[in-house]
Amino acid sequence: MSKLQTFFANHRTFLLLFACILGVYSISFSERLSSYSYWMENSESYVVDHVTAMSGPDSYYWLKMARELDKGTLGKGQREPLKGYPDTVPLEYES
In whole angstroms, how large is the CA radius of gyration of the chain? Predict the structure, then answer.
């Protein structure tokens, strides 16, 4: 604990570290916001047959699970359907 106190004993070091963290957070937030704004303006390019295009390989699997959770059919017959997910929840893929 004393090492941490001596590290922050110089207030300039603390302020510089805080400013760097705040700067990185601000840049990240602005990039995400601009990506979201672009996506909202061009949403017709990312939606096909009322399904949003996803970039991750397992995104569609998670969307399917969310639909089943909304319908109440996720994990039928299990005491707690989401406990131990994804390994213990057998789901059948639609073809």
Answer: 23
